[in-house]
Design goal:
Blueprint lengths: L20 H12 L14 H9 L3 H11 L3 H11 L6 H13 L4 H11 L10 H18 L2
Helix pairs in contact: 1-3, 2-5, 6-7
Length: about 150
């Protein structure tokens, strides 16, 4: 069985409007059942931790919930709202979303991702969301399609 590359973009939000949360849910859910591709953490230090910090959710509490309850995405959002007393801090969500949309990878990371994807590094693709999408698609393609 091959392990799954998460292909939900960090630029996607669910009904709560939190960017990257659907991707974090997918990664943690896949890890909970041993199906997450080895190149990906269930909850890493970058966008994953930014989301958890903005929501005020402890990483271990989040992962324990995913591992034990194995919630659907709507169930996860309902659980988050429960943890937050029924509502989110909209200012924190807005700041998080702006930070995700505005994050720029360093030159080395950009060059590595574009090189692996076979795209010239001409300076037109700089944002981390699109670079991370390309990275996911490149890994997915090499693993599942090109073999």
């Amino acid at each position: 069985m091959s392990k799954i590359v998460p292909t939900i973009s960090s630029g996607v939000a669910g009904p709560l409007g939190v960017l990257h949360l659907p991707r974090l849910w997918m990664k943690a859910s896949l890890a909970a059942v041993g199906k997450l591709h080895d190149d990906y953490p269930a909850a890493g230090a970058g966008y994953d931790q930014m989301v958890l910090d903005a929501l005020g959710i402890d990483r271990e509490v989040f992962l324990n919930h995913i591992n034990s309850a194995k919630p659907s995405y709507p169930q996860l959002e309902a659980w988050i709202l429960e943890q937050k007393g029924g509502s989110l801090d909209q200012d924190a969500v807005d700041k998080l979303n702006d930070a995700i949309k505005g994050y720029i990878h360093d030159d080395g990371t950009r060059a590595e991702i574009l090189g692996a994807a076979g795209i010239p590094d001409d300076g037109t693709i700089k944002d981390a969301v699109n670079l991370n999408n390309l990275d996911d698609w490149t890994i997915f393609y090499s693993q599942e399609i090109a073999g």
